[in-house]
Specification:
Layout lengths: L7 H18 L12 H10 L5 H14 L3 H6 L2 H8 L6 H16 L8 H4 L7 H12 L8 H10 L9 H13 L6 H14 L17 H4 L17 E11 L2 E6 L10 E2 L2 E2 L3 H10 L7 E2 L3 E4 L4 E10 L12 E5 L10 H12 L1
Parallel strand pairs: 1-7
Antiparallel strand pairs: 1-2, 1-4, 2-3, 2-8, 5-7, 6-7
Length: about 350
């Protein structure tokens, strides 16, 4: 059973050392730090899930320019939100932002809930994200445990095991909560994030760390062992064919269902595995001539890998004859700004250039 006892000295020294370091060496000029406004803090925290700060900044600024407040986001159509999000990836975050904005407007009168527990009731907001928003926007005392913080605590206390395992994660949550200071919660939360992002990285700069004297992994010269890596599991491989139908410098796209992979995004039509049904679909889209398979594209998801086999053909029917609900003829010169999954955007941009 995991148990990393905390001494009174560790608790007393941990937060002050971090706070002193953050004042001198932390990040203070990120665009979402200019205000405690809950909407800005919420959008930034959702964008920062699984994405680095340097990548997020231009997307955050563009998103704020188009949707400056929760009311404008709630009033927008999902397709427009996905288009502004295009390129940032993990599109479920954008769908959750849109759904949450509508809930805030309809159920909370446009005012964000201010407790961690209440924030977790909004789509896409887990325990750590809710705590971060509550700390930054409302200075509420709540512990966070994102990937960077897991790494810091796993090293500092030499916590064995992969942080994603339930028992290890429970121990890290216990430590994170026990170390919370009574004051300066917002700065302390930022300090933890900054330390994990700037110093206690995968290749740590231990000599620059304000916690180096108390770090158990450092004392034992075992820094590289923590946190333990995820156990390798071979992901199953799936295969699917997608129709790249071109007509008059436009490509035929279909909006995917909200549930499932690439939910709500525009994609080329997926062809049935059954050859007879696939031929029927090709005729439906006016692809009566011979098409050709392009090289397969392997794309990784969390639980499986997908081999995408694009079938390129020219649609012989005019666009007006293929105008069903959910289908879109998108000019190739607009691909860059459209909300498409990354592998299809890359392929279509290459075809547009050719």
């Amino acid at each position: 059973m995991l148990s990393c006892p905390l001494s009174t000295t560790e608790v007393a020294e941990f937060a002050p050392a971090l706070l002193r370091w953050q004042r001198r060496h932390g990040r203070h000029d990120l665009p979402w730090q200019s205000s405690r406004e809950p909407y800005r803090r919420w959008v930034s925290e959702i964008m920062l899930q699984q994405t680095q700060v340097t990548t997020v900044i231009p997307y955050f600024l563009r998103f704020m320019s188009r949707f400056p407040d929760v009311a404008s986001l709630a009033a927008a159509e999902l397709g427009e939100v996905l288009q502004v999000w295009a390129g940032l990836g993990y599109y479920r975050r954008a769908r959750n932002l849109h759904a949450s904005a509508r809930l805030v407007v309809t159920d909370y009168g446009g005012v964000f809930p201010y407790t961690s527990d209440a924030l977790q009731r909004l789509p896409g907001i887990g325990r750590s994200t809710a705590a971060a928003i509550a700390a930054f926007a409302f200075n509420r005392r709540a512990a966070i445990l994102d990937g960077n913080v897991k790494r810091v605590l796993a090293r500092y206390f030499a916590v064995p095991g992969y942080p994603g395992d339930a028992a290890v994660e429970r121990e890290l949550w216990r430590l994170s909560e026990a170390l919370l200071p009574r004051r300066e919660i917002s700065r302390y939360t930022q300090a933890l994030m900054d330390l994990g992002a700037l110093v206690c990285t995968r290749q740590p700069r231990c000599n620059d760390c304000p916690l180096v004297t108390g770090c158990k992994a450092r004392r034992e010269q075992r820094v590289a062992e923590f946190p333990a890596p995820r156990r390798r599991v071979r992901r199953p491989l799936r295969r699917a064919r997608f129709l790249i139908a071109l007509n008059n410098k436009s490509v035929l796209l279909v909006r995917r269902p909200d549930l499932g992979i690439w939910g709500g995004l525009l994609c080329p039509p997926e062809l049935p595995a059954d050859s007879e049904l696939a031929d029927r679909e090709l005729r439906r889209f006016g692809c009566n001539g011979a098409g050709r398979d392009l090289p397969a594209i392997r794309h990784g998801f969390t639980h499986f890998s997908l081999d995408i086999v694009p079938l390129l053909c020219r649609a012989e029917l005019a666009q007006r004859h293929i105008a069903e609900p959910g289908l879109v003829w998108l000019p190739l010169n607009q691909i860059g700004a459209a909300a498409l999954p990354a592998p299809f955007k890359k392929l279509l941009l290459r075809l547009a250039g050719a």
